[in-house]
Design goal:
By secondary structure, the protein is α/β, with parallel strands linked by helices. Helix content is about 40%, strand content about 20%. It has 2 domains: about 80 residues, Orthogonal Bundle (Helicase, Ruva Protein, domain 3); about 210 residues, 3-Layer(aba) Sandwich (Rossmann fold), CATH 3.40.50.150. Helix 1 packs across helix 2, helix 2 packs antiparallel against helix 4 and helix 6 packs parallel to helix 7. The termini are far apart.
Amino acid sequence: MPAAGGDTGARRDERTWTVADAMSWTVDYLTRKEVESPRRSAEWLLSAATGLSRIELYAHHDRPLTPVERAAFRAGIERRAAGEPLQYVTGEMPFRHLVLQVRPGVFIPRPETEVLVDSVLEFLDASGVAEPVVVDLCTGSGAVAVSTAYERAGARVHATEIVPQTAEVAVLNAERAGVSDRVSVTVGDLFASLPAGLRGRVDVVVSNPPYIPTADLVALPAEVASREPRIALDGGADGLDTVRRIVEESREWLRPGGLLAMETDTSRVKDAAELMTSWYERVGVRHDLTGRDRIAFGTRREA
């Protein structure tokens, strides 16, 4: 796909490019640019430009690209080759049963966070509460809040986010998933924007807060450290600054027996769980999809 990155100067190649041609050229180009997972990037970019699913790209490999599709595809290739995260380029991120909208400035949901949702859903199912109240702190794109409401029709979810522009994306994702009547997104620091009437009535507090120790940020991949919002990553000196606040403040909002579940850095999960032992019971740690410690959880003491 000549013209990307200026490899061929200003000359435009007007030959007919098929899906297969575009795929082959892009994989080679992104490989030379040392982009991570070049084939996956090429598939997503081509899918976004053509409207074809990744499976359809191979089923319709001989379909010519239109000039409009070629232009959109070139633009995406250039952004990806420059180190922009693939999800920001395409504007989408698959998460559980949904495809979420993401944009620059919004933390990109990770597959490991799907296990955090599992923890919430399993607790809700075991509790038997018909219309549970869930609070999702640091909601970001709304991945946890929207997925919870989407997968449990009775759940009422209150999501909070400190960055207004990020909260707007969470609202959009709730609308796209058809759950905006049961997902409320408010702007504020942790519990600050919630209705006071929820104190002591919340069934679940869940959060994927910033949890990377400040000193460890420099070791993150460049496209994470330089492109994703620091406010969503930096957990303070030991990675537990926000975790400590959530553990303490959740006591006022959870009902007795209510669940607190948090995703944390794999090296700090046991520390997070230890923080919970003073005020919570049935405290434990759950693994993520790769088998690493990831989720700290516990229930508010009955008395």
